[in-house]
Design goal:
This protein has 333 residues and is an alpha/beta fold. It has 2 domains: 223 residues, Rossmann fold; 91 residues, 2-Layer Sandwich (Alpha-Beta Plaits), CATH 3.30.70. The chain is 34% helix and 31% strand. It is built from 12 helices and 14 strands. The strands form 3 sheets. It has a 6-stranded mixed beta sheet with strand order 6-7-8-3-9-10, with helices on both faces. A 4-stranded antiparallel beta sheet has the order 2-1-4-5, covered by helices on one side. A 4-stranded antiparallel beta sheet has the order 12-13-11-14. It is elongated, with a radius of gyration of 24 Å. The protein starts with a strand and ends with a strand. The model has no long low-confidence stretch (mean pLDDT 89). GO terms for molecular function: ATP binding; ATP hydrolysis activity. InterPro entries: AAA+_ATPase (IPR003593), ABC_transporter-like_ATP-bd (IPR003439), ABC_transporter-like_CS (IPR017871), ACT-like_dom_sf (IPR045865), MetN_ABC (IPR041701), MetN_ABC_transporter-like (IPR050086), NIL_domain (IPR018449), P-loop_NTPase (IPR027417). Part of the ABC transporter FtsEX involved in cellular division. Has ATPase activity.
C-alpha cells in the first residue's frame, strides 16, 4: 500500500466562518495502481492532493505513506520523505531560463547529485518521455504536450514511489491529452510507479485508471475499480462513466437497468431471454465499453410479455433469474 488516508478533514477559517474543504475522507491507494480522484470544481479534490504530500496540513486525521505517518514527521523528516513523491502540475511550472535538460536536472541539483550522475539520469529520463530531439530547447520553444513531458520527467528525477498529477491534462487539447495519458500508463507499467490523478474529466479516468473515487463537497461518495463501478446499478460514478440514460415508462413494458461485465460479449443473452421466456426486450439507451481487459455495460431496457402479463411479478422473477444465471444484474425501475 502506498497511501492510507484515515479520516482526513481540512477546514479553512475566516473570522467566524468555517469552510469544510475535506470532511472525514478515508481512502487506500495501493502500490503500483493508477488511482483517479474525480469531482467538480470546488469539490475538494485539489485540497486532498495537497494534503497527500502535506503542502496542506490536515485539520484532523492521518496520512500514511507506506508505514510512515506524514502528519507526525518533523520538518526535516518531511522534506526527506517528500523525495518519494513526485508532482506533475496543470500549468507545467517550468523554469523559462533553463533548457529541457536543465529543468529535469533541477531537483537533482537541489538534492546534491554529482554532475555526472545528473547527466546520466537526465539522459535516461529524456529518452523515457520521448524528448531526445528537444534536449536543448527552452520552454518557449515547446508545445503544451512537450512541456508536460518535461514536467513528468522532472517529477520522476528522484525515482519517487508515487506521482501526484493535479489536473495534468486539463490545459491540453484532446489529442495531446491522450498522448500524455498513454505516457503515464506506460510509465506505470514500466516503472511500477503509483499514479494518483486529480481530474474533473471523465475521459481521463475511463482511459487509464484502475480504480477511482468520486469526491463531492469534501466527502468521498463513491469508490471502486472501474469495472465494479460501471457494473453497480447504484453507483453515481459508474453512471457518469457509462451513462445508461433516464427511465422511459410504458404502459406495456417493465423498465429495468441491466449491468454486467463481459456477459453480453460471450453469448447472445438478450436474444436467448426473448426466446426462452417469450418476452420482448427493447434496448432504450446505454452502452457497452472496453474498460481495462473487460467489456462492461449499462443498458436501460424494457421487457414486455407476449402474454400481456407485463406487470406480473412472476414475469419479473423469471427475467431476473434467467439473467442473473448468465452474469447480468437486473434492477427494475
Amino acid at each position: 500500500m502506498v497511501f492510507s488516508i484515515e479520516s482526513v478533514s481540512k477546514e479553512y477559517r475566516s473570522g467566524t466562518k468555517v469552510l469544510h474543504a475535506l470532511d472525514s475522507v478515508s481512502l487506500k491507494i495501493e502500490d503500483g495502481e493508477i488511482f483517479g480522484i474525480i469531482g467538480k470544481s470546488g469539490a475538494g479534490k485539489s485540497t486532498l492532493l495537497r494534503c497527500l504530500n502535506l503542502l496542506e496540513r490536515p485539520t484532523s486525521g492521518r496520512i500514511l505513506l507506506g508505514d510512515t505517518d506524514l502528519t507526525a514527521l518533523s520538518p526535516a523528516q518531511l522534506r526527506d520523505t517528500r523525495k518519494r513523491i513526485g508532482v506533475v502540475f496543470q500549468h507545467f511550472n517550468l523554469l523559462h531560463s533553463r533548457s529541457v535538460a536543465a529543468n529535469i536536472a533541477f531537483p537533482l541539483e537541489v538534492a546534491g547529485y554529482s554532475r555526472a550522475d545528473r547527466r546520466a539520469r537526465v539522459d535516461e529520463l529524456i529518452e523515457l518521455v520521448g524528448l531526445e530531439d528537444r534536449r536543448d530547447a527552452f520552454p518557449s520553444q515547446l508545445s503544451g504536450g512537450q512541456k508536460q513531458r518535461v514536467g513528468i520527467a522532472r517529477a520522476l528525477a528522484a525515482s519517487p514511489d508515487v506521482l501526484l498529477c493535479d489536473e495534468a491534462t486539463s490545459a491540453l487539447d484532446s489529442d495531446t491529452t491522450d498522448s500524455i495519458l498513454d505516457l503515464l500508463a506506460d510509465l506505470n507499467r514500466r516503472l511500477g510507479v503509483t499514479i494518483v490523478l486529480i481530474t474533473h474529466e471523465l475521459n481521463v479516468v475511463r482511459r487509464i485508471c484502475h480504480r477511482a473515487a468520486l469526491i463531492d463537497q469534501g466527502r468521498i461518495v463513491d469508490e471502486g475499480t472501474l469495472t465494479e463501478l460501471v457494473a453497480d446499478p447504484d453507483s453515481p460514478l459508474g453512471e457518469a462513466l457509462l451513462p445508461a440514460g433516464t427511465v422511459r415508462t410504458s404502459p406495456t413494458g417493465i423498465p429495468a437497468l441491466l449491468t454486467f461485465v463481459d456477459s453480453l460479449s460471450t453469448s447472445p443473452v438478450i436474444s436467448q431471454l426473448s426466446r426462452d421466456l417469450d418476452v420482448d426486450v427493447t434496448v432504450i439507451s446505454g452502452g457497452i465499453e472496453d474498460i481495462g481487459a473487460h467489456q462492461v455495460g449499462r443498458l436501460r431496457v424494457e421487457f414486455a410479455s407476449h402474454t400481456g402479463l407485463a406487470n406480473d411479478e412472476e414475469t419479473r422473477k423469471s427475467v431476473e433469474e434467467h439473467l442473473s444465471q448468465r452474469g447480468v444484474k437486473v434492477t427494475f425501475s
